[in-house]
Amino acid sequence: MRVVGRPGLGLIVSLAALPALAQNGENPALPDTVSCPEAVAEIATCYAAKHESGAYLLAAMPKRWNGNLIVFAHGGPAVVPPTPTSSQGDLAKYSIGVKRGFAWIASSYRREGYGVQMAAEDTDNARKFFIERIAKPRRTILHGASYGGLVGAKLLEKYAKNADGSTNYDGAFFNSGAVGGSILNYEFRADLRAVYQYYCKNLPRPGEAQYPIWLGMPADSKMTLKDLGTRVDECTGVTKPANARSEPQKQNLANIIGVMRIPERMLLRHMQAATFTFRDVAERVTHGESAFSNRSVSYKGSSDDAALNRGVVRFEANPAAAAALKADGEPTGALTVPVVSIHSMNDPQAAVEAQHAYREQVKAAGNGDRLVQAFTDENEHTAQSATEIAGALEALMQWIEMDFKPEPNAIAEMCTQMSAAFDGPCRYHPEFEPKPFSTRFARGAAVQ
């Protein structure tokens, strides 16, 4: 085999050495071609199909393929149904892999809403589809972003290796992954709903049918994302300039943000999850019971903490419901392949402290040597630059190919090397260590 270039992500092999595309008599025909996003339109051919599960698949095959495949798990959970174009934006955003010679495939997931195990199965189905209908890769890398990081963590536990010891995934890369698990991902949003309702009293309104706030909203509710935004805005004015808010709106917003310690620009996004996703969790996972408890939480950071803690609604977790949610989406740390996980220190949506929880799970399972975490300095969620992502992927590939485990400073150095070929800053901080998740949010000492 003739090799051109350096080992790792940028490895380009001669076309004669590549696995044959699935277009001969021994394999099904190639899938239908579709237009690629502009970012890869000149360098790749894109394919699309609808899986029998209902999920939409999108694949990109670079014209100069390095023989390797990225299987992508997207963020969410989505609150609107998937469409044939659901993954186009992800391919454009993470086009760096295709530009480096990787083939790429993603699943939309079969439906909107929560379901980590479902999304993991749909993502692995995308891998199988690529092999059956397009080509068999030399190496397969899982990439999970945001909620897709949690999907990816659970996927690795179930699908990374087969019972006979053969490998489906050679390694994984997560960026801004919500890897702390389903309870940590959503427990603070249950707190948010409780604090929000204390100040706003419009989810539900006094004259509407009442429901427990951990339910999100009733299964038969007709509320839309726009309706929710209207209610949040009428209470807080969060979508308006500060000088356009009424004094009650300013006070409500200040209290909610003060207690929850989230940027005000993220309030509506977290409320969407605490409403639509909570409904889905209750309906599909916890069988109408609460997986969360704030019975003993002492909220802090408002203009009157004593009044807040006296008046806030309290709820208790059902043990079976909590166990069901953990079973669906809490990592066990059972890693069998190398994983590089990068995260912004200032992520406003998926708290960086989740990485501490994930690392402790992996270490407790005896797999600490299979996980490397590195941290960047952005103020947005999943906003790592192409250079930062390229550096992390290159480090992962060298770990896989040469059994050289990278340290965070090596990933930072790799990013600097990649800056010669790609635009974007290198904002790695090798010295950073995330704190425990319990330090992040408003859960203080127990209420007496």
Description:
By secondary structure, the protein is an alpha/beta fold. The protein folds into two domains: 3-180 and 331-439, Rossmann fold (3-Layer(aba) Sandwich), CATH 3.40.50.1820; 182-326, no CATH class. The chain has 13 helices and eleven strands. A nine-stranded mixed sheet has the order 3-4-5-7-6-8-9-10-11, sandwiched between helices. Strands 1-2 form a two-stranded antiparallel ribbon. Strand 4 (44-50) and strand 5 (56-62) form a beta hairpin. Helix 3 crosses helix 4 (147-159), helix 5 packs across helix 8 (267-284) and helix 6 (225-236) crosses helix 7 (247-260). The longest helix has 19 residues, at 182-200. It is globular and about 60 Å long. The model is unreliable at 1-18 (pLDDT under 50).
Which range does the strand content fall in? 5-15%
Residue windows where pLDDT falls under 50 for at least 5 positions: 1-18
In helices, the fraction of residues equals: 25-40%
The biggest beta sheet reads: 9 strands, mixed
CATH homologous superfamily designation of the largest domain: Alpha/Beta hydrolase fold, catalytic domain
* Arrangement of strands in the largest sheet: 3-4-5-7-6-8-9-10-11
Chain oligomer state? single chain
CATH topology of the largest domain: Rossmann fold
C-alpha Rg, in Å?
Answer: 23 Å
List how many beta strands DSSP finds.
11
Helix-strand category: alpha/beta
